[in-house]
Amino acid sequence: MPTGLVALLDDVAAIAKVAAASVDDIGAAAARAGAKSAGVVIDDAAVTPTYVTGFHPSRELPMIWNIAKGSIKNKLLFLLPAAVLLGQFAPFLIPFILIIGGLFLCYEAAEKVLEWLHIDESTKHDEPAILEGEGREEEMTAGAIRTDFILSTEIMAIALSEVTEEVWWQQGIILALIGVVITVVVYGAVAIIVKMDDVGLHLATEKEGALASFGRGLVNFMPKLLTAISIIGTLAMAWVGGGLLVHNIAAVGWHGPEHLIDIISHPLVGLFPEGGQTFASGISFAVLSGIMGVAIGAVIAPLVHKVFPHGEAH
Protein backbone atom coordinates (compact mmCIF):
# COMPACT_ATOMS: atom_id res chain seq x y z
CA MET A 1 0.00 0.00 0.00
CA PRO A 2 1.48 3.41 -0.92
CA THR A 3 2.97 5.35 1.96
CA GLY A 4 0.77 8.37 1.23
CA LEU A 5 -2.38 6.28 1.53
CA VAL A 6 -1.16 4.78 4.82
CA ALA A 7 -0.55 8.27 6.19
CA LEU A 8 -3.98 9.38 5.02
CA LEU A 9 -5.63 6.41 6.73
CA ASP A 10 -3.68 7.17 9.90
CA ASP A 11 -4.92 10.75 9.77
CA VAL A 12 -8.50 9.57 9.23
CA ALA A 13 -8.20 7.19 12.19
CA ALA A 14 -6.81 9.96 14.38
CA ILE A 15 -9.65 12.29 13.35
CA ALA A 16 -12.16 9.51 14.05
CA LYS A 17 -10.70 9.04 17.55
CA VAL A 18 -10.95 12.77 18.23
CA ALA A 19 -14.51 12.81 16.90
CA ALA A 20 -15.44 9.82 19.08
CA ALA A 21 -13.93 11.52 22.12
CA SER A 22 -15.90 14.67 21.28
CA VAL A 23 -19.10 12.64 21.01
CA ASP A 24 -18.38 11.06 24.40
CA ASP A 25 -17.70 14.49 25.90
CA ILE A 26 -20.88 15.90 24.40
CA GLY A 27 -22.91 12.96 25.68
CA ALA A 28 -21.46 13.25 29.18
CA ALA A 29 -21.97 17.02 29.27
CA ALA A 30 -25.54 16.65 27.99
CA ALA A 31 -26.27 14.07 30.71
CA ARG A 32 -24.91 16.38 33.44
CA ALA A 33 -26.80 19.39 32.14
CA GLY A 34 -29.99 17.39 31.66
CA ALA A 35 -29.81 16.08 35.22
CA LYS A 36 -29.48 19.64 36.53
CA SER A 37 -32.66 20.53 34.65
CA ALA A 38 -34.65 17.62 36.12
CA GLY A 39 -36.68 19.76 38.49
CA VAL A 40 -37.95 22.02 35.73
CA VAL A 41 -38.67 19.00 33.50
CA ILE A 42 -40.83 17.41 36.22
CA ASP A 43 -42.70 20.67 36.62
CA ASP A 44 -43.24 20.87 32.86
CA ALA A 45 -44.69 17.34 32.86
CA ALA A 46 -46.88 18.19 35.85
CA VAL A 47 -48.22 21.44 34.42
CA THR A 48 -49.01 20.45 30.82
CA PRO A 49 -51.87 17.96 31.46
CA THR A 50 -53.89 20.77 33.07
CA TYR A 51 -54.03 22.57 29.71
CA VAL A 52 -55.95 19.73 28.03
CA THR A 53 -58.22 18.89 30.97
CA GLY A 54 -61.90 19.27 30.08
CA PHE A 55 -61.52 18.98 26.31
CA HIS A 56 -63.05 16.20 24.25
CA PRO A 57 -60.76 13.12 24.27
CA SER A 58 -60.37 13.35 20.49
CA ARG A 59 -58.72 16.77 20.88
CA GLU A 60 -56.23 15.88 23.63
CA LEU A 61 -53.47 14.36 21.50
CA PRO A 62 -53.71 17.03 18.75
CA MET A 63 -53.41 19.71 21.44
CA ILE A 64 -50.39 18.00 22.99
CA TRP A 65 -48.81 17.68 19.53
CA ASN A 66 -49.32 21.40 18.88
CA ILE A 67 -47.85 22.29 22.28
CA ALA A 68 -44.87 19.99 21.64
CA LYS A 69 -44.23 21.65 18.26
CA GLY A 70 -44.37 25.04 19.96
CA SER A 71 -41.93 23.77 22.59
CA ILE A 72 -39.42 22.61 19.97
CA LYS A 73 -39.74 25.98 18.23
CA ASN A 74 -39.16 27.77 21.55
CA LYS A 75 -36.02 25.76 22.28
CA LEU A 76 -34.35 25.44 18.89
CA LEU A 77 -35.32 28.62 17.02
CA PHE A 78 -35.31 31.17 19.84
CA LEU A 79 -33.55 29.96 22.99
CA LEU A 80 -30.72 27.90 21.45
CA PRO A 81 -29.16 30.74 19.38
CA ALA A 82 -29.62 33.16 22.29
CA ALA A 83 -27.97 30.72 24.71
CA VAL A 84 -24.97 30.09 22.43
CA LEU A 85 -24.47 33.84 21.89
CA LEU A 86 -24.78 34.43 25.61
CA GLY A 87 -22.24 31.71 26.38
CA GLN A 88 -19.75 33.19 23.90
CA PHE A 89 -20.11 36.92 24.46
CA ALA A 90 -21.68 37.49 27.89
CA PRO A 91 -21.17 34.45 30.17
CA PHE A 92 -20.98 36.81 33.16
CA LEU A 93 -24.74 37.33 32.78
CA ILE A 94 -25.55 33.65 33.30
CA PRO A 95 -25.63 33.79 37.15
CA PHE A 96 -28.00 36.78 37.04
CA ILE A 97 -30.31 35.00 34.57
CA LEU A 98 -30.29 31.93 36.79
CA ILE A 99 -31.12 34.06 39.83
CA ILE A 100 -34.15 35.45 37.99
CA GLY A 101 -35.08 31.90 36.98
CA GLY A 102 -34.66 30.72 40.55
CA LEU A 103 -37.00 33.46 41.78
CA PHE A 104 -39.60 32.41 39.21
CA LEU A 105 -39.41 28.75 40.24
CA CYS A 106 -39.62 29.69 43.93
CA TYR A 107 -42.68 31.80 43.17
CA GLU A 108 -44.32 28.94 41.25
CA ALA A 109 -43.62 26.45 44.06
CA ALA A 110 -44.83 28.80 46.80
CA GLU A 111 -47.98 29.63 44.83
CA LYS A 112 -48.94 25.94 44.82
CA VAL A 113 -48.08 25.50 48.49
CA LEU A 114 -50.19 28.54 49.42
CA GLU A 115 -53.05 27.12 47.37
CA TRP A 116 -52.77 23.73 49.08
CA LEU A 117 -52.88 25.46 52.48
CA HIS A 118 -55.89 27.56 51.35
CA ILE A 119 -53.93 30.72 52.13
CA ASP A 120 -54.06 32.10 48.59
CA GLU A 121 -56.31 30.53 45.95
CA SER A 122 -56.44 33.55 43.62
CA THR A 123 -55.05 31.58 40.65
CA LYS A 124 -57.25 28.52 41.10
CA HIS A 125 -59.27 27.76 37.99
CA ASP A 126 -61.64 24.80 38.02
CA GLU A 127 -64.20 25.58 35.30
CA PRO A 128 -64.14 22.86 32.61
CA ALA A 129 -62.58 24.07 29.39
CA ILE A 130 -65.44 22.68 27.26
CA LEU A 131 -67.89 25.05 28.94
CA GLU A 132 -65.88 28.16 28.21
CA GLY A 133 -66.82 28.75 24.59
CA GLU A 134 -65.28 28.43 21.14
CA GLY A 135 -61.65 29.30 20.66
CA ARG A 136 -60.74 27.95 24.08
CA GLU A 137 -58.52 25.24 22.56
CA GLU A 138 -56.39 27.81 20.73
CA GLU A 139 -56.24 29.95 23.85
CA MET A 140 -55.15 27.07 26.09
CA THR A 141 -52.58 25.85 23.55
CA ALA A 142 -51.10 29.34 23.26
CA GLY A 143 -51.03 29.63 27.07
CA ALA A 144 -49.26 26.26 27.36
CA ILE A 145 -46.64 27.33 24.80
CA ARG A 146 -46.05 30.59 26.71
CA THR A 147 -45.57 28.65 29.94
CA ASP A 148 -43.31 26.22 28.10
CA PHE A 149 -41.20 29.15 26.88
CA ILE A 150 -40.53 30.20 30.48
CA LEU A 151 -39.73 26.66 31.61
CA SER A 152 -37.64 26.04 28.48
CA THR A 153 -35.68 29.21 29.20
CA GLU A 154 -34.86 27.80 32.63
CA ILE A 155 -33.88 24.43 31.17
CA MET A 156 -31.57 26.00 28.59
CA ALA A 157 -30.05 28.44 31.10
CA ILE A 158 -29.37 25.67 33.62
CA ALA A 159 -27.92 23.47 30.87
CA LEU A 160 -25.77 26.34 29.57
CA SER A 161 -24.32 26.92 33.03
CA GLU A 162 -23.01 23.35 32.95
CA VAL A 163 -21.29 23.60 29.54
CA THR A 164 -19.65 27.04 29.61
CA GLU A 165 -16.23 25.40 29.21
CA GLU A 166 -17.16 23.79 25.90
CA VAL A 167 -16.52 25.42 22.52
CA TRP A 168 -19.49 27.16 20.93
CA TRP A 169 -20.43 24.40 18.48
CA GLN A 170 -20.34 21.79 21.23
CA GLN A 171 -22.55 24.02 23.37
CA GLY A 172 -24.98 24.24 20.47
CA ILE A 173 -25.08 20.47 19.95
CA ILE A 174 -25.48 19.78 23.68
CA LEU A 175 -28.28 22.33 24.11
CA ALA A 176 -30.06 21.10 20.97
CA LEU A 177 -29.77 17.50 22.17
CA ILE A 178 -31.14 18.41 25.60
CA GLY A 179 -33.95 20.44 24.06
CA VAL A 180 -35.10 17.65 21.73
CA VAL A 181 -34.77 14.82 24.27
CA ILE A 182 -36.55 16.73 27.03
CA THR A 183 -39.38 17.73 24.70
CA VAL A 184 -39.89 14.14 23.52
CA VAL A 185 -39.77 12.77 27.07
CA VAL A 186 -42.06 15.42 28.58
CA TYR A 187 -44.75 15.46 25.91
CA GLY A 188 -44.55 11.72 25.33
CA ALA A 189 -45.17 11.23 29.06
CA VAL A 190 -47.97 13.80 29.01
CA ALA A 191 -49.66 12.02 26.08
CA ILE A 192 -49.53 8.70 27.94
CA ILE A 193 -50.84 10.27 31.13
CA VAL A 194 -53.84 12.02 29.57
CA LYS A 195 -54.86 8.93 27.53
CA MET A 196 -54.58 6.44 30.39
CA ASP A 197 -57.97 7.65 31.60
CA ASP A 198 -59.53 6.82 28.25
CA VAL A 199 -57.86 3.40 28.17
CA GLY A 200 -59.14 2.64 31.66
CA LEU A 201 -62.65 3.81 30.80
CA HIS A 202 -62.68 1.71 27.62
CA LEU A 203 -61.60 -1.42 29.52
CA ALA A 204 -64.11 -0.79 32.29
CA THR A 205 -67.07 -0.38 29.94
CA GLU A 206 -66.20 -2.64 27.01
CA LYS A 207 -64.51 -5.59 28.70
CA GLU A 208 -65.38 -8.03 31.45
CA GLY A 209 -63.64 -9.78 34.32
CA ALA A 210 -60.04 -8.93 35.11
CA LEU A 211 -59.69 -6.41 32.29
CA ALA A 212 -62.76 -4.48 33.46
CA SER A 213 -61.43 -4.47 37.02
CA PHE A 214 -58.06 -3.25 35.77
CA GLY A 215 -59.79 -0.50 33.80
CA ARG A 216 -61.74 0.68 36.86
CA GLY A 217 -58.54 0.62 38.89
CA LEU A 218 -56.76 2.66 36.23
CA VAL A 219 -59.53 5.28 36.19
CA ASN A 220 -59.39 5.54 39.99
CA PHE A 221 -55.59 5.67 39.98
CA MET A 222 -55.17 8.52 37.49
CA PRO A 223 -56.27 11.39 39.80
CA LYS A 224 -53.83 10.09 42.42
CA LEU A 225 -51.05 9.95 39.83
CA LEU A 226 -51.70 13.52 38.70
CA THR A 227 -51.73 14.67 42.32
CA ALA A 228 -48.43 12.87 42.97
CA ILE A 229 -46.85 14.41 39.87
CA SER A 230 -48.03 17.85 40.97
CA ILE A 231 -46.54 17.38 44.45
CA ILE A 232 -43.25 16.05 43.06
CA GLY A 233 -43.13 18.91 40.56
CA THR A 234 -43.70 21.48 43.31
CA LEU A 235 -41.00 19.97 45.52
CA ALA A 236 -38.64 19.85 42.55
CA MET A 237 -39.33 23.51 41.72
CA ALA A 238 -38.64 24.54 45.32
CA TRP A 239 -35.42 22.52 45.41
CA VAL A 240 -34.15 23.68 42.01
CA GLY A 241 -35.27 27.30 42.52
CA GLY A 242 -33.75 27.54 45.98
CA GLY A 243 -30.55 25.86 44.81
CA LEU A 244 -30.25 28.25 41.85
CA LEU A 245 -30.60 31.21 44.20
CA VAL A 246 -28.07 29.93 46.75
CA HIS A 247 -25.40 28.96 44.21
CA ASN A 248 -25.72 31.95 41.92
CA ILE A 249 -26.06 34.57 44.64
CA ALA A 250 -22.76 33.16 45.93
CA ALA A 251 -21.35 33.30 42.38
CA VAL A 252 -22.00 37.06 42.21
CA GLY A 253 -20.38 37.65 45.59
CA TRP A 254 -22.91 37.16 48.41
CA HIS A 255 -22.26 33.94 50.35
CA GLY A 256 -24.71 34.60 53.20
CA PRO A 257 -27.46 32.09 52.21
CA GLU A 258 -24.86 29.44 51.39
CA HIS A 259 -23.14 29.90 54.75
CA LEU A 260 -26.49 29.83 56.59
CA ILE A 261 -27.37 26.48 55.02
CA ASP A 262 -23.91 25.14 55.89
CA ILE A 263 -24.32 26.23 59.51
CA ILE A 264 -27.72 24.55 59.83
CA SER A 265 -26.81 21.38 57.95
CA HIS A 266 -23.40 20.75 59.57
CA PRO A 267 -24.68 19.33 62.89
CA LEU A 268 -27.33 17.30 61.06
CA VAL A 269 -24.78 15.75 58.70
CA GLY A 270 -22.55 14.97 61.69
CA LEU A 271 -25.20 12.57 63.01
CA PHE A 272 -24.55 10.20 60.08
CA PRO A 273 -21.64 7.74 59.77
CA GLU A 274 -18.71 8.96 57.71
CA GLY A 275 -19.65 6.89 54.67
CA GLY A 276 -23.10 8.46 54.45
CA GLN A 277 -22.20 12.07 55.15
CA THR A 278 -21.84 13.07 51.50
CA PHE A 279 -25.33 11.77 50.74
CA ALA A 280 -26.72 13.38 53.89
CA SER A 281 -25.08 16.68 52.95
CA GLY A 282 -26.75 16.64 49.53
CA ILE A 283 -30.15 15.81 51.01
CA SER A 284 -29.88 18.49 53.71
CA PHE A 285 -28.89 21.09 51.12
CA ALA A 286 -31.84 20.13 48.90
CA VAL A 287 -34.30 20.29 51.80
CA LEU A 288 -32.98 23.55 53.26
CA SER A 289 -32.66 25.30 49.91
CA GLY A 290 -36.19 24.11 49.08
CA ILE A 291 -37.55 25.54 52.32
CA MET A 292 -35.75 28.79 51.63
CA GLY A 293 -37.14 28.80 48.09
CA VAL A 294 -40.73 28.40 49.30
CA ALA A 295 -40.22 31.14 51.90
CA ILE A 296 -38.89 33.55 49.27
CA GLY A 297 -41.64 32.57 46.85
CA ALA A 298 -44.28 33.15 49.53
CA VAL A 299 -43.11 36.76 49.75
CA ILE A 300 -43.11 37.20 45.97
CA ALA A 301 -46.48 35.51 45.24
CA PRO A 302 -48.79 38.11 46.89
CA LEU A 303 -46.90 40.91 45.12
CA VAL A 304 -47.28 39.18 41.76
CA HIS A 305 -50.99 38.58 42.38
CA LYS A 306 -51.51 42.27 43.06
CA VAL A 307 -49.94 43.15 39.72
CA PHE A 308 -51.62 40.23 37.89
CA PRO A 309 -54.84 39.73 39.88
CA HIS A 310 -56.41 37.18 37.50
CA GLY A 311 -53.45 34.89 36.85
CA GLU A 312 -52.08 36.78 33.82
CA ALA A 313 -48.57 36.06 35.14
CA HIS A 314 -48.96 32.55 33.72
Radius of gyration over all CA atoms, rounded: 23 Å
**Largest sheet, strands/sense/barrel:** none
Q: Tell me the helix content.
A: over 70%
Whole-Å distance between the termini? 68 Å
- Structural class call reads mainly alpha
Order of helices and strands: HHHHHHHHHH
**DSSP strand count:** 0
Number of helices: 10
- Assign an overall shape: globular
Tell me the strand percentage band: under 5%
| Mean of all residue-level pLDDT scores | 80
Summarize the structure.
With 314 residues, this protein is mostly helical. The chain has helices at 3-36, 38-47, 49-52, 57-89, 94-116, 136-162, 168-206, 210-251, 256-269, 277-307. It contains ten helices and no strands.
